[in-house]
Amino acid sequence: MGGPGIETERKFEGGAAGPRLDTRALPGVGQVVPAADEELDAVYYDTHDLRLLAHGTTLRRRRGGHDAGWHLKRPLDGDRREETAWPDTGDDVLPEALAVRVIAVARGAAVIPVLRLRTRREREHLLDRKGARLAEVAHDHVAAELLRRPGYITAWSELEVEVEVEPPKNGKNSKNSKNSKNGKNGKNGKSSKSGKAAENNEAAEAAALLDAVETQLSDAGWHRSDAPSKAARAFADTGAAPASATPSRAARPGSIGHAVHARIATQRDALLAADPGVRLDDPEGVHDMRVAARRLRSLLRSYRRCFDRRVTDPIADELRDLGRSLGEARDHQVLAARVLSTATELCEADESTCFELADAASRIDAAESTAYQQKRLSAVEDLNRKRYFRLLDRLELLVSSPPFRPGRADRKAPRELRKVVRKEQRRLARRAARIDSATDPGDRDTALHATRKAAKRARYAAEVAIPISGHTGANAARFAKRTKAVQRLLGEHQDSVVARDMLRTRAADAHAEGADTFAYGLLYAAEQRAAERAEEKLPKVRAKAEQRRLARI
Question: pTM of the predicted model, to two decimals?
Answer without folding.
Answer: 0.88
